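Figure 2 data, in text form.
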Amino acid sequence: MAKQQIGLVGLAVMGENLALNIESKGFSVAVFNRTTTKVTRFIENRAAGKNLVGTYSPKELCGVLQPPRKIILMVKAGEAVDAMIAAFRPHLQKGDLLIDGGNSFFKDTERRLDDLARDGILYIGTGVSGGEEGALLGPCIMPGGSKKAYALVQDVLETSAARVDGPCCTYIGPRGAGHYVKMVHNGIEYGMMQCIAEVYDILQTVLGMKPAEMSQTFGKWNSAELGGYLMEITTACLARVDGDTGKPLVDVILDKAGQKGTGKWTSQNALDLGVAVPTIDMAVEGRILSAFKDERVAASHILKGPRARRASKNRTQFIRACRDALYVAVVSCYAQGMALLGEASKEYAYDLALEGIARIWKGGCIIRSKLLDPIAEAYKRNPKLANLLVDKRFAKIVNARTKALRKVVVEAAAAGVPVLGLASVLGYIDSYRTARLPQNLTQAQRDYFGAHTYERTDKKGVFHTAWIE
């Protein structure tokens, strides 16, 4: 019996779909799942008649694979990955390759890579974005590790990835670079989703728009310059009617957002590196606040805010302002994420190619949008670009549309609509464009209570003042 070319472990929907995707591209696949009944069900149903082999133990999977063995792990991040590595390790040989396709923390990936290297086993931390549909039809794939390891599966990964101006897969960098880039991708995703949700809230509260009308509005925006996957699914979500109640489905969905940790990791790591990502931070905070549903309901009867009000000017103009505000917000989310990638590239010696990352994000992934073409072009023009906001093209856009963002934030505040994300975008832009910030007073305060010293504008050196005489 001929050996299979690649193995895949973990038959949740993502794993099943990725296995089917890889097989459809001409590769033979062997699969394993800890709950072995899933293997049988998959092989007898979705995989029936395909070049897919089911196995029922790590030893059996390793036995049916061509050497060097190449095994993709599609299991939950954290302890499950370590447990699966431990289960397979006795059956692996020097030169075999494990590929973690889950949302693992990049430092865990680096720990696992170093540990497996002691036995000569190769390891790749691979970010996979696109959800269930992307896994089946072509995701964005972000592999990091050694180039030697990547070469073993380059044809499989690049052939199975989405394609936009080439495969939406490229070697990201050494060690944990692949999972790091996926983490930041998810952070950008958090920020964009928060800002989209806030614009939805403003449209319904300030303008009294219903979901069906908002769906049409988001659809128009999606067909133009704001086009992208998140706008596309927002349009669909707002259009869906609940089969049980006949109400718009979005109106009967509980307002508590979940999270799996990648947004939080992005915020925490940005703090470690000293990079400002306020919109990602506020998106995480927004989800945390949403979880306190009972407290919020109780507080709504105690804490008073303004009455819901209508926009003070022309309705059409205000909708256009919301569109422009969202456009600036999306640009800012990308700018914050790319700035973090730039700093991480230096801090961790990842040597990230930001142009290439923007290019592969153009297809398959959740944050794919029309904006990624000009973003890739911006980093092609200047690979050392400090911030996307100061690129000539984007600076012109931001300068032209920040007035709309300011108007929308003001209207939201007047109506009592919380805009953690949009307000943070405005604060980020205003802070970044301000030559002199008030942190001179902060430094004076720090020196006063803790003798932390300060620098001066008129001469070099470090100074301390005896504040109490």
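Caption note: The longest strand covers residues 122-129.
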